[in-house]
Amino acid sequence: MIVIDSGSPVPPFEQLRAQLARQIQDGVLAVGSRLPTIRHLAADLGLAVNTVGRAYRELEEAGLIETRGRAGSFVSAAGEEGRERARQAAAEYAAVIASVGIDTSEAIRIVQAALGTGAAASVS
Fold first, then answer.
1. Hey, which of 30, 49, 79, 106 has its CA 20 to 30 A from 119?
2. CB count, 10 Å around CB of 28?
3. Contact 34, 74 (CB under 8 A)
4. What would the pLDDT profile of 105-119 be if each residue is shown by its tens digit?
5. Do the Cβ atoms of 74 and 68 come closer than 8 Å?
6. d(Cα 95, Cα 24) in Å, to the nearest integer?
7. Cβ atoms within 10 Å, residue 48
């Protein structure tokens, strides 16, 4: 279920984009699932058609959905492929870390620094 908070400082298109992206990434919306039409979703959420259209465009640019002309918009397999690549890279990283004797907390700090978070979390 998608909920738009009109009192939020986050623009409605971004709230919608983030919620749909999360549902796709969590598998709530499976690969191949058809999304509601832009007009239908706009009416359901009380949003402007352009607001929903922008969210869909950004999801498409991110590779999470694909639009098939008049057939509509569907959850893309590209997002799953990206997650699989990330899982493979993580497994390779874990093997390197184990082979050089770096402990888990330091390995996580290295990843956080590489991702640009900069903040080292305390890991047990």
1. 79
2. 13
3. yes
4. 999 999 988 887 644
5. yes
6. 29
7. 12
